[in-house]
Design a protein that fits this description.
The structure is a homodimer. The first copy, chain A, has helices at about 20-35, 50-55, 60-70, 85-100, 120-125, 130-135, 140-155, 160-180, 190-195, 250-265, 280-290, 300-305, 320-325, 335-345, 490-500; strands spanning about 5-10, 45-50, 75-80, 105-110, 200, 205, 215-220, 230-235, 275, 360-365, 370-380, 415-425, 435-440, 445-450, 460-465, 470-475. Chain A is of the alpha+beta class and about 500 residues long. The longest helix of chain A is centred in the N-terminal third of the chain and has 20 residues, at about 160-180. The two termini of chain A are about 35 Å apart.
């Protein structure tokens, strides 16, 4: 039997634009966690950083940090899984403690990003994308935007309704961030602010995308009994190429990881008091709450509309402000989610943002474009544990079969447009604006293509032509330009109901 | 009690210059290990790569590899500790299995390096060096060269004797590599070859330095009982700056890691049948054998002279050919050492290079300039285990105390030259040749400095002047140029005795 693993302490820096170096940020977070944990010894230091070599020009970073901590001698390893690094380093540290070989382990995750030009940062972040899709100039926001448009199509939402849902996620998370002293953005945003912001990649605007952030987080795990216990871990990958997935609007990596975490914890989605969900893009929060089993597929947006995911709702999502408002130092976000859950479960929050009676919290952290995801469940060690639950999801989670990577077709005549976007913030070296789409061809494969402009419609037949090594999409009949997004009035009415007046908790969720 | 962890299988690619991509190399190594292990499922994939983003432009590498393996879904994390990555990823995987949460774990380590110009590779590898020392243009070979010259001084060896010892290490490891079908270099080298090669950084020549290599290695760990067991792991860091160390000629990170590994395995250095020691530079093999407790400090060179570390000697060191001849794909070398030990312990080697009766093998792997080192001990599971041993080293290994990083002095007048080198293969952007030295100043601190040329002598008083942000060293009285290195004839005589005629094993080591 593995040993139980407890959280001894947490600490973090304020997230945002910082003049400190990454080692300085990490030392600050570590000092706070060590003070919080009151441990006498640290036996191992696990470091989580995503692209530290490219962001800062430093390698050998695990040893660098133990030196800066004044602890040269202590073993140290760096763990990395792109933007889910913060959760992955927690997982590896958990195993080291659960094995019984390490008693007190310090986990440190951080990233320093704001010092580089945005186009360069976008390029570094785009290296997580599959090489063929990257070749077209696809960035993280453009892929998220195409997933958003596809979600709207499958959920049968009007442009107005979809924009309105996304705005509500952004406004909710900024509201939560305004209560969080560690958040990058501490100002609430209004419907006017949301709709006045420019498009990053249609239909996603500035407030739909997590910012570029500096920050560090520390968590100490221990074999000694403490008030918070790690109860469930799940971790799963998916194909690199988005076009090779079985769905554009649900992430199998989250579904598999959630199933593992619930089973290890002997819990079901109904047992979760609140969750930190990876909202690098507002759409991803909605999809996340569906993949985690909180809401049925394509219906997560309804909970946002009803205010059920606001901090006073029945299932608060991202009480910290999420990646959206707390900020997103890529390697640190997963550990920041875990730190938020620990503080909420301990009841240590400022009263304005304490979730009353929270006993079990969950985090969901996305690596890359949702191809290395982790789910982590923590609980109060004094929680009464009734009969264990074996959660059966409504999909087959165990079906990981070896597969061949589909060949890329050499030439294509025509196909059906599955989704598209126009990207305005392109990676370094790619001209802006850039319209991209996914087209399904006769044998069911998806291909990526570039298009001349946005006169496109999901479901229409398009001609495809190869120029150089890229496919180009041409609509067989041009569409009218998409209607300008509206919905501001609806968001204003929702705002009052969902955030200002607490929603009494019910047990019938 | 943690679970016992066994090695189910190993596999590797031939090391050298390859036209394959790193994912292709990793898939090849993984296929061989899966075939060797005959496991039906893989529950987790741990990936070890050092600077994959800078060498290949790919990030999110753990997910990329599970995809290429045809296993999207399986959880995957990347672990990194610079050049000891191969051992560190093995350690994290070990914890995952020992915790009981993972049954069969695939560990994959690799690096693709030969496609870049040498100056660029040297620059990427130099990012492991502390920022201040890097500023002077210090590269890994130049620091290793200064350590070598200091070792010679402390061991009271003549130039001729030191060159002769280094040549013997290189010739021995190339001889071993000639027997290893996976080695990059399969040709023996002669004393003439060694002494004809150019200096990389005085007194180190081409054959003293591990090459630039492509390659990948796979190891599968399991909870199921198999013939080879993991019996000891040790891991320790040291200061980033070489000038902040307590010794220039012994690595505290190795000593600490060795002590931990021996204690976990309940073994002493006397129990080890053979070892793979991190010979990125020939000197490091000698220092490694001392730090591991095989030989007294400053006397490791005697074992080389006596032929005791050759493949037929009493304690074979680097039967694989070591980093020197097998090659050094930086993230993979530690796991290649482990694979060699597994095959030797299983008795699966070609008869020409099988170490007879090998029951316990050890690997020592250096991260950075010896500031993140690991020691791993494996043994035959059927080995008779007498009374457990608690090894007491002749140093205090437990003395890890928090420390302040010493300030860099603002100005210096004079000091004592502790060691120096002239580097010919400088990192990108640094003019060649470059003479560097370490100088001790009145309060005992070491500083790095540049010098005009090599008319220097260890122990002499030097003047130091600051120009810009660099210190410059000027000898108060110029020295005669160092004598040209000799010793070829002695190496030729040694060659016949140490490698050609097997040395009968004795029990009195």
């Amino acid at each position: 039997m593995p040993s139980e693993v407890y959280v001894a302490g947490v600490g973090m820096t304020k997230f945002g634009k910082s003049d400190l170096t990454l080692p300085q940020l990490m030392v600050e977070a570590a000092s706070r966690a060590i003070q919080d944990a009151r441990v006498n010894t640290i036996d191992y230091v696990f470091i989580g950083v995503m692209s530290v070599e490219e962001f800062t020009g430093e390698s050998n970073f695990a040893a660098l940090i133990t030196d800066r901590l004044g602890l040269p001698g202590i073993p140290s390893s760096r763990v990395e899984t792109a933007s889910s690094t913060g959760s992955a380093v927690f997982e590896s540290a958990f195993y080291a403690v659960a094995s019984g070989y390490q008693r007190n382990v310090l986990i440190l995750a951080g990233e320093k990003m704001t010092h580089l030009p945005t186009a360069q940062t976008t390029k570094i972040l785009a290296e997580v994308i599959e090489r063929n899709e990257r070749k077209y100039g696809a960035s993280m926001p453009s892929l998220a935007a195409m997933i958003t448009r596809r979600y709207q199509h499958e959920a049968k939402l009007s442009d107005e309704a979809m924009q309105s849902v996304l705005a509500k996620v952004a406004i909710k998370n900024h509201y939560n961030g305004s209560l969080n002293p560690y958040a990058q953005f501490r100002k609430i945003i209004t419907a006017e602010d949301y709709f006045a912001a420019r498009f990053v990649s249609t239909p996603l605007r500035t407030f739909d995308c997590a910012p570029i952030t500096d920050g560090a987080v520390a968590v100490i795990l221990t074999l000694d009994k403490k008030p918070i216990r790690v109860s469930g871990l799940g971790h799963a990958t998916d194909t690199m190429a988005v076009r090779h997935r079985d769905s554009l609007t649900s992430f199998r990596s989250t579904r598999l990881a959630a199933w593992q975490a619930y089973n290890m914890a002997r819990l079901s989605p109904k047992d979760i008091s609140f969750a930190e969900v990876h909202d690098a893009f507002t759409t991803f929060e909605i999809i996340g709450t569906e993949d985690l089993g909180f809401f049925p597929h394509r219906e997560g947006w309804k909970a946002v509309e009803e205010g059920g995911t606001s901090i006073k709702g029945r299932l608060p999502i991202n009480p910290s402000g999420g990646l959206k408002a707390r900020g997103h130092p890529v390697g640190a976000s997963g550990l920041a989610q875990i730190a938020e859950v620990v503080l909420q479960l301990r009841g240590d929050m400022e009263p304005s943002r304490q979730i009353p009676g929270a006993r079990i919290g969950l985090t969901q952290n996305i690596g890359g474009l949702a191809n290395n995801n982790l789910v982590t469940i923590l609980e109060r060690a004094d929680r009464y544990r009734p009969i264990p639950v074996y959660w059966k999801p409504d999909y087959d989670p165990g079906n990981v079969k070896p597969r061949e990577i589909p060949d890329e077709p050499l030439s294509v005549d025509k196909g059906t447009l599955e989704t598209f976007t126009t990207l305005y913030t392109t990676p370094e070296g790619i001209p802006s604006p850039l319209t991209l789409g996914f087209v399904s061809i006769s044998d069911g494969r998806l291909i990526m293509g570039r298009a001349a402009d946005e006169n496109l419609k999901i479901g229409q037949t398009v001609n495809v032509e190869k120029q150089g090594d890229l496919f180009y999409i041409r609509p067989s009949a041009p569409q009218p330009p998409p209607s300008p997004e509206k919905g501001m009035e609806g968001v204003k009415r929702w705002l009052h109901r969902a955030l200002s007046s607490p929603d009494p908790k019910g047990d019938d969720r």
